[in-house]
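=== RUN LOG ===
request id: a7f3
mode: sequence -> structure
chains: 1
length: 131
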Amino acid sequence: MRHALIALTLTLAGPALAEDPAPGEELYLSRCGACHGVAARGDGPMAALLTIPVPDLTQLAVRNGGMFPRADVVRAIDGRLSLVGHGGPMPVFGRLLGGGSAVIDGPDGSVIQTKGDVVAIARHIEELQAE
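=== RESULT ===
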């Protein structure tokens, strides 16, 4: 009986757990969504207030010959790649993010050290890429 109760609990809890956003999605929505939009198409509620069009992040791989530019996205989020928005630099969220230390491979095989939250956001943006 006890095993049946546990199985029933896990079965019922499964859909609720699956609906919880992944950490990268939560971070994206809280830090990037206001400008880039929920679906990362550049149509967030703040986009209309900016003097420069907000890029559609779902097209990054398309604009990069079919390859997602993970290193550039990480550098943009953590502030190493200077981007312009609202007539000035895009806000640098890297200093506000945590998640411990993380590394990714650069396109040339180098190691890029950043924060875990930055990598989580970059992975979420990669999942949103247009086919």
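=== NOTES ===
Helices lie at 2-19, 23-31, 33-36, 60-63, 70-78, 116-127.
The beta strands are 84-85, 88-89, 101-105, 111-115.
=== END ===
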